[in-house]
Amino acid sequence: MSETNVNKKRVISSDDDKLDKLETDTNILASKKPEKVSEDIVDSNESSQVEGSTQWRLRIKNVPKFASAKMIKGLLAKHSCGDVRVKKSHEWDFCYAFFKQQLQAIDKLKNVNFKNRTLVVNVDNITEQHRQSLFDQRHEKRKKIFFDPTGEIQHSPEELLADQVTPLHKLPYEEQLKNKEDVIKKSLSKFRNKIKDLYKERPLYQPKWVMQKSDLNLPCTLQPIIASPILEGYRNKCEFTIGRNLNGEITVGFLLGAFKDGINTVIGPDKSLNVSEVAKKIVKAMKDYIVMSPYEVYDNKSRKGTWRMISVRSQVSDDVMIIIQIHPQGLTEEKINQEKAALAEYFVTFARESQFNLTSLLLQIYDGFNNGIPDDKPFDCIFGTNFIFEKMMDCRFRISPRAFFQTNTLAAQVLYEKCGEFIKDLFPVEESAILIDMCCGTGTIGIALSKSLGNKIDKVIGIELCEEAVEDAKFNAKLNEIINSEYILGPVEKNLKTLHSYKNADAGTAIAIVDPPRAGVHKNVIKALRECKAIDYFLYVSCDCNLATQNFIDLCRPTTNNFPGIPFKPVRAVGVDLFPHAKQVELLIEFHRDRDYPTKDVKSE
């Protein structure tokens, strides 16, 4: 964009000219092996100062690992615990609850039962001085890892970022695929061993698939891993932090680790292999805009500043969505409206000059503690529409700002085509099935498979908990002329019962499919699936086979009072690489109802 256009867009008052430069902390380092951040973590900061020098904090123990921060907040609201924020990882059996005022919640939570567990609650207050001390201690620990004894940095920030964002980038792609296939094999072997252990007390009930010999101890046939058709610039969605680099310069990019680990440094994505060229251009444009802005970048440590983050969706369809997040910091409505107008003018001009299709430009105002885009804060559309479209498998899909869509569209198409291949093999030419799309989101899998398989699919039934996603799914079904479809708002475990109203489902010709979040689905979903006699076939798409292993175990474990219904058995599996240069890999497993399983002498667990 021309310098004239940048300078022309705003008039800065004399007071605004006296901008204070943020203090540069050149000792802030990156973590070469950062702690894996779970999608369940609502707040990634250890603590923060709220209305004074003391942070009122509870440590709540005996919490189920599957419980999300959102679930805990709902529990606290139910018991009238007041304004609270929650920190919870799916790997923890505890959580932290932070309050703005002196604790009254501890009495309200005594002996509270949550998911068949009695919560244990302790006060764990932190002063602001202690918070700073914890931050500095972690910062010093990181220094020893990444600086040599003379104080010289051992790796460039760009190297550290590459190791963090694309940890396999130094390996040839064929070797990356082999590593990912090995991960799948180990995970499947672990799954089989766990099932063997569960049947030790019931040797006569042990399924054939568990007893059969396998050179690699695999529970089923594993097909060769499928490569991604695109290796670079494949991510269609990226979220970038707005901050400062090691030299104190304004930067838009990725944090070099977790803030709670003492990391507050941002490095641009110029050399990131998985970020699209369009996203890189937009990031640079955002940086140029902020350099000219009278407002400072947001600093997580001091809680001061305006510019927080930018999210970019760049699709195969060429549609582009930009979401900019700011902290209001007491800005008047007039000032915010002026900024909206300036942003719209700047990015519309930039898109025209850079020749990309800016479809949606949104602003989110957020004064909370967490990084990322919160679910409960609205978006203000300052240019274009509130959504974009993506193309896949001869379908078009509307994508809302918060909607999930596979981050590698071209590889996702390969994955869904493999799902279709598995379904085709299940049914002879004359037969068809009802497709149950569990946790369907915007309906992508069900619609794509229905369109590609034609008369193989009698009906698509999608079940989803998010109302916005259900509306998108209904729109997408209509857009792609999938007339025989139904989308149900609510929990999967409660709504699977509605299948019994369908003739074909009662006849046992229903196949379910799920593509859940990384941690898998709640065990109640698996229990409901086992109890639903209409479903004989099940396709599970996992983006983290290790975290999903418990789902596989619960699906195939012996029948008990706690896990009723005939168990399933794995039949075949295949890995599909949606994340070149990263460690993640998608695993598709086909399960069949185990009709050879004895149905008598059910024991209670």
UniProtKB/TrEMBL annotation:
Organism, scientific name: Cetraspora pellucida
Active site per the UniProt annotation: 543 (nucleophile)
PANTHER family the record matches: TRNA (URACIL-5-)-METHYLTRANSFERASE, TRNA (URACIL-5-)-METHYLTRANSFERASE HOMOLOG A
Superkingdom, natural source: Eukaryota
Name listed for the protein in its UniProt record: 132_t:CDS:1
Binding site for S-adenosyl-L-methionine: 406, 464, 515
Molecular function as annotated in GO: RNA binding; RNA methyltransferase activity
One GO process term, biological-process aspect: RNA processing
UniProt record similarity statement: Belongs to the class I-like SAM-binding methyltransferase superfamily. RNA M5U methyltransferase family.
Alphabetical UniProt keywords: Methyltransferase, S-adenosyl-L-methionine, Transferase
